[in-house]
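tool_call: predict_structure(chain=1)
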Amino acid sequence: MQKIIKQFPVLSQYTYLNTATSGLLYDGLLDWRQEHDLDFLIGGSKMKMKSNVLLSETRNTIGKIFGCKSENIALVPNFSIGLNFLLEGMGGKRNVLLLEGDYPSVNWPFENRECSTYYLKVTDTLEENIYDRIKLDNINVLALSLVQWLNGIKVDLEFLKNLKKEFPDLLIIADGTQFMGTEIFNFEDSGIDVLGSSSYKWLLGGYGNGFMLFADDTPAKFSCRSTGFNAADGDVGGKDKMSFAKQFEPGHLDTFNFGSLNYSLGFLSDIGMENIAGQIKKLSLKAKMELENLGLLEDAVVKRKEHSSIFNISGDKDLFTKFLENDVVCAQRGNGIRLSFHFYNTENEIDKILGILKRR
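tool_result:
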């Protein structure tokens, strides 16, 4: 793992606990990007004419890693654009259950449309509360982030799978931006109808790329209107023949951005998602135990059996400044300070954080 960590120059300068804000650029990806642009420099349109090969490869890579048919995958610049495209085709007035304090790009698109929105506080009994509200309020759409951006609470994926079995007509739409790349995941076995994700955080894909995954029966539930020449694969006569997923790709896609995602997915696969998941879980367990012992975590997090590797600790501006003075990169979120641990972090870095907290 140390050899891999050396690919990230930022880690030699800082204790980087801010992947929940932005994943890191690394040597291998930088090399690929430079080669890509050099090919464009000397090849121009000849190089770009090969873009469909790279984009198809990217879809195939996403599908292989996350268990989704390539034809059910749309490449989008980010989750927010993908969700807005989707909701334009949702039609009808839906009863939508959202989580209080969820990422604005999850909640706002529903609030800005003709939906009846219901809200649920994120507590230690999140799953039980979701189940009760779905029955009570005749909910037909559940939209949520798989991992909450403010405090790292992660919804039980097995719960979502069982929820879908009991309520097969329930439409489950998930934001995976703070989740994808942290553990092994199979979309087709998840019970989720639509999962969208930006790739600049845990997937290390850089900015300007993301994807939408659709269950087989999702197209029948939407009447999306977005269209464009690229959606028809450049076929002048293909206006009425485009697939559901391609409707999310109306214009040209950037091979630099999506090639970066494809490269990083290969990078993560070479490390092994099981190894990445194991390292993240080890760090999460240690961080949760130590921060809990210091009384810095909210009750909802403490009482959960499983948690992500994102933690929001009690702390003011002075503590945040103290972290910065000790070369710790983190973020102020909500009423506290957010720390997030990826596979390139270490237990020694957790010990450094604990030392700063105990000395304050």
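agent: The mean pLDDT is 96. Proceeding to next step.
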